Amino acid sequence: MLTGLMFDVQRYSLHDGPGIRTVVFLKGCPLRCLWCCNPESQRPEPEIEFRESHCQQSGRCTEVCPVGAVSPLSSASPHPSPLPEGSLPLPPPTVPFAALRAGAELGPIRGEAAPLSWWERGADLSPGLSPTRGEVRKIDHERCGRLGKVCGRCVEACPNGALRVVGQTRTVDEVVAAALRDAAYYRRSGGGVTLSGGEPLAQPVFARELLRALHDRNVHTAVETTGCVSWPLLEAILPYTDLFLYDIKHLDSATHRRLTGVSNQTIRDNARRLAEAGAAMILRVPLIPGHNAHDDHLRAVADFAASLVAAAGVDASPGRGVVEVHLMPFHQLGKDKYRRLGRTYALGDLPGLREAPDGSERIRRAREIVAGCGRPVLIGG
Ligand code: SF4
Ligand code: SF4
């Protein structure tokens, strides 16, 4: 049975496409953006997340781990020292994304069905639990992966929900059934379902079949994509995708590689192909101070967007080609996730753009410059 690996499903979302939406976050990403606010999306396999604030030091996780990946109490910091400037939080993946870029279709990612985790059960921190001070436990994520799968014994053993498996396996039918519960909201609001990630096309067969099933049921579909996949994978979902939310991180290839771990050539080429195919696209540009939010780069974004508008043709019907550009101000909402995954956040000390003293003015100016492309420019989205 065809399954996909997801790390979250958000209902009633007002972001990531028009109207009220269900956003399905799939695991696996070919990029390693320094500013990524969903680091749990990056790896294409389930992984363990540890919340120090929930830990009451029962030690049961340490006892049950078959590979000794959960350390006993230690007063040492579990957090690695900061990365050297410009280095990526995780090495860019070579397998299976190299195959993906080369055009191979990957099968569904296999994963063990994990027990319901605290976020699925809707459970929250019990009253009376308090953050641990001083001593901490530490998960050795590499050692945890040595079994070839996340066994989840520590999660089951923890009485306080301090551990969870990030990555749940679901079938297409399960996701469709869950999404259709909100069909009335989609109809009334012009909403639908968005596949996000990570990169949804890191699981291309699952993504295509899910989109097809939703489309067959007249549900509006959107895909948020890095564009860093082989063209045949994008082409395969074209008939079932009503809107592409297409990320543009940096238009200079060398800088793109430094910031994300990969060149932008495939991304640029695919953007043009989608525009020429008449796909409805919203370009999404993160505004990262000191990296891509300066005037010169924003002018390049405006020029690139204008070139895609032209590529769609002068007679492109309304709603085809680039319909809008969204600028996404840098924020720190994902910072704690790095800590829970035992990783270092390279931009952990960079203030959110909205919080910066001149943030509003910089956002206003960015919008003004990018509006030169001739399409509406929105902040956020
Ligand atoms: S998932 Fe299994 S191997 Fe990994 S830390 Fe927990 S008990 Fe150990
Ligand atoms: S493309 Fe998105 S999910 Fe992937 S690393 Fe960059 S920000 Fe994270």
- Give the integer mean of the pLDDT values: 86
Return residue spans where pLDDT drops below 50 for at least 5 consecutive residues.
Answer: 75-84, 94-134
Question: How helical, in percent, are the residues?
Answer: 25-40%
Share of residues in strands: 15-25%
Structural notes for this entry:
The strands form two sheets. The chain has a nine-stranded mixed β-sheet. The chain has a two-stranded antiparallel sheet with strand order 3-4. The protein contains 14 helices and eleven strands. It has a domain at 3-40 and 168-379: Aldolase class I (TIM Barrel, Alpha-Beta Barrel), CATH 3.20.20. It has helices at 60-64, 97-102, 118-121, 141-144, 153-157, 172-180, 183-189, 204-216, 231-237, 253-260, 265-276, 295-311, 335-340, 359-370; strands spanning 3-13, 21-26, 47-50, 163-166, 168-171, 192-196, 220-225, 243-247, 280-287, 321-329, 377-379. The two termini are 34 Å apart. By secondary structure, it is of the alpha/beta class. α11 runs parallel beside α12 (295-311) and α12 (295-311) runs parallel beside α14. A hairpin with a 7-residue loop joins β1 and β2. Residues 29, 31-33, 36, 38, 41-42, 197-198, 226 line the site of one iron/sulfur cluster (SF4).
